[in-house]
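Contributing: when you submit paired examples, paste them exactly as shown. First protein:
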Amino acid sequence: QTQASAPRMPSSTLVPGWLAGTFAGGLLVHCCFIPLWVGCIVPPFLAVYLLFCGGLRMLAGLALIGLIVYLDFGITVRWRPWFMRLIYELNMTRYYSRCELRGALDAVKTERNLFMFHPHGILSVGFVCNGVWNRAFNDLASPPAQQKAILAARMGDPPGAPWRGTAFMIAQNLREWSGFFKVLCDVSGRLESATRQNLTRRMAEGRNVGIIPGGFEDATLHVQGRERTAMSDRKGLIKYALQHGYALTPIYTFGESETYATFPYLLKPRLWLNRFGIPAVAFFGAPWMPLFPRRNVPIASCIGPPLQLPKLEKPTPEEVSKWHAAYLDALQALFDKHKGECGKPDAKLEIW
């Protein structure tokens, strides 16, 4: 089953009709999100620079440091459900020539499921546009009303509170120590740090979780036109899924590798930097704005059937390895099944 990108939504209540679900709406969201994401490293360096300038600039640097510390450690902004609706209505997928969900849409589980997005790419178009901020995907992954109430109670939400949906997890240093980008994550109500504590807490609740298992290594491996993902030694997620009896759903996004050109050399030292949580990539996207992805690339996030794992309180290393291998087989099968229809019949999946 295939689902094209969501149609325009003339009944929008937050966005004017001429902007809702149009290229302009998708561009606007990218213009807001990308600077916050890429620019999250700028304020600390700017603050240090201002400190050494003396005079009023030094005071400005101190004020900026105070603001950064306050945003990162002194406050958690309350979740704003209207913000989620706003991004849904603007519709990020409209930025691209085509951006859609495909695959086993009828088999998407509404609870106790770990969505595994591949590859990371640079902007993570599949994860961001067809996952976190995609109304169709989140509707598919939402349980019936009665089950929503049960899950919401487990999460500590008051009765009648809007449903938060799938918990999407990203790198902790990006989520927690990024100033204004952290505020964006806070108000989203669904972007959380990919820590063991958060993951196991959400699994104990039975809530669906979305993650990019390849992380920064996936981004570092990105080469335009090559289909690569880092998954060969990612066994921790498998262990947690076994302990909670979760299903694993592979999602592979074709077109992700075409959105940016990257510096492909010095791979080993760049992968080494990833061990310290440092993304080691240099990239170039659209000619008119290199920070933005190329929009003439057809994007298709293909969803595979869920791989149901047994519930094992204390899985052995052998059991973890067995189900890790089963997941790799499922990912490869998903890739091979959809590569032809996505315009890449001769593509080879490189699993690092």
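Second protein:
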Amino acid sequence: MEVREEPYKEIGINYHETNEIYGNLVEKKSIPIFRRENSQPINFAETKWAEGHKKLLECKTLGEKLRLLSKMRKQMQPVVTRISKEIIDENHYKWSRLLEGANKIPEGTYRSLSQERELKYVPLDVGGVAGGHKFMAEGFLFKLAVDPKLAENCYLYGGDKPFLDRAAKAASQELHGANQFYFYFLHCGIPIQVPWQTIVDYRGFRIVAMPILPLADSELIYGSNDAGKTVKNSDAKFSEWMKAACAMNHLAEHKVRNVMLCTGGDVEGHKVVDEETKQSSLYLLDLARWAPPEHPEVTAHLPHPPSGRFYRLMRGEFLQKSLKRSDIPPLSSDTLTGWGAWQKSEHETNLRKATRLMCLEAVDSATFDIVTQINDVDLLTHVPMDMDTYTLNFPDVVDVATVCHRAGLPIRHIILVLFKLVEEEEELAKMQQHQSDIDT
């Protein structure tokens, strides 16, 4: 389920000033951009919403499962939306001012950064930087998407300057991955629980929210939760189910630190054993890198930002349909990353082929669907086009984003669809001119 309160847009940032201020903050040991002081450990006792996962496993039919999902969604959505807004409202002015390059908040509008302020929501001390800053409230875990600073003038997604929009895209990939595995497990009756998630976009920030799971005494059985220092695949049944789910998405089994995995190395599988009943519960978490990235060498029509491999991932529709029907071998989700050293050249070659196929077959499919929905071959009449700026005004009947996604094409490649439409329009004009010459 997904909640979008406002269209996401990046906060206006003066990058030159921002880099200077960030340097000053570090040199003067001032309060950092996003505070982590007074952080608290996660409380795994607040797992009331996670009980819905267990109830879901007890449902005997798919209809019962879907009805329970609908019921839980209606109960969770208003709570998650309210708390997400409160978290952002509580710190929005401070965060946005700092991102704009201000190291001091004007007096009379907000308390000075050097003063302590009573906060209702305190960041969690759970480690990790890629997932953003974590908060806990009313049985939910909230991940605020930020571009964390790794070193002086070095940010995870933006390179030498912060980019919140890229951090937000990376956060949305976790929801995409959760959907792919969740519904596969749901339909196949596999007892692996993927936490329900929702996205809230509000005031230029993005939060991913999910129920807190009972993982206090969990055992890591798949993937890594410490940046690759420890990698596991220790449960045979869990591994078998993961292979089946990844095969559906045409994902390759590959070696990470001498351990064979089918997903990105930092995807986590956990096992919890109830002390009283001795029954095991299985959980799959942190699916932000569930799919392989696009190869930047093939997407010359796009700018190539640093760390794009962490959020410019292929869509499930393309992996499950077009790619699976092709003769291209399965792809590794760790290609182009530090996790993908094993058979690196082979996996990168396969990724180039797959990206090229996406830019051809998925573009053709999306273009055909758009023309079909317009229901007329005369594009000049039904799709007004400015040939100087190459912009299209699609009729309201065409949902371009949905058409592209159904074809397995991320909307960032819409320019390729535009070029394809231009080619068809020019071809149509030539045919009409030729017919006119014949008639005359």
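If you have annotations for the second protein, write them as plain sentences, like these:
The CA atoms of residues 56 and 69 lie 8 Å apart.
The longest strand covers residues 205-211.
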